[in-house]
Each structure stands twice: as C-alpha cells, then as structure tokens.
Write a structure and sequence with these properties.
single chain; 110 residues
Length: 110
C-alpha cells in the first residue's frame, strides 16, 4: 500500500491536464493498472483513505461546514466523472505541501 504514491499521482493529475484527460474515463481497475504502468503503486484502500481525508478537510477546514447531506462539496460532484470531481473540486483546493501533510498521518502515509 502506498498513500504517498496516490498523493503523488493526484498531484500529477492536478498539474498535467493531458495526464488527467488520459485517466478521466477509466474505471477504477483500469486507473490502478495504468497508474502502476506509470510507476505509481497504490491500492483501492489507499485511494479510499486519501479521498475520504481530503473530502473531510475540504468540508470542515476549507468550507467551514458540517459533514452532512447539506455540505456544498457533495453538490459539486453531481454529473461529473469521479476523477474529474476529485481533482478539480477536492485536490486542487490544497497546495502540494498541504496534500502531503494531510496524507502523511494516514496508515501507510509516512
């Protein structure tokens, strides 16, 4: 498991529009497989841990809202492919340093 690799992968997606476009329409299994071919090693558990942590941080720390059905972040995912939502509505709200700090505390994140 490699939370740091998924964090690096997210940063690459945020910084490279072509790379994001290449991955946007892939399903979960394809995303993990092709990311491994690009040198990233992460699991579905790593993805879940990072995404949940980042979404909670956006809602509580960035938007100053409660995590519930009224959180504005949830409305921003409607009608979007999940990876596009994750990159554009969640990950890009953090600096590279913030992403690393948030994910470093996760199991496998050090």
């Amino acid at each position: 498991m490699s939370v740091p690799d998924f964090t690096r992968f997210l940063r690459r997606l945020c910084n490279d529009a072509e790379y994001l476009a290449r991955y946007s329409n892939r399903n979960f299994s394809q995303l993990i497989f092709h990311a491994q071919n690009d040198g990233f090693q992460f699991s579905t558990g790593d993805i879940s841990a990072v995404v949940g942590t980042l979404e909670a941080a956006v809602i509580m720390d960035k938007d100053h809202e409660e995590i519930d059905g009224n959180s504005s972040l949830w409305r921003s995912m409607w009608g979007k492919p999940h990876l596009d939502y994750l990159v554009n509505e969640v990950a890009r709200r953090f600096t590279g340093e913030e992403l690393s700090l948030l994910t470093a505390s996760l199991p496998g994140g050090a």
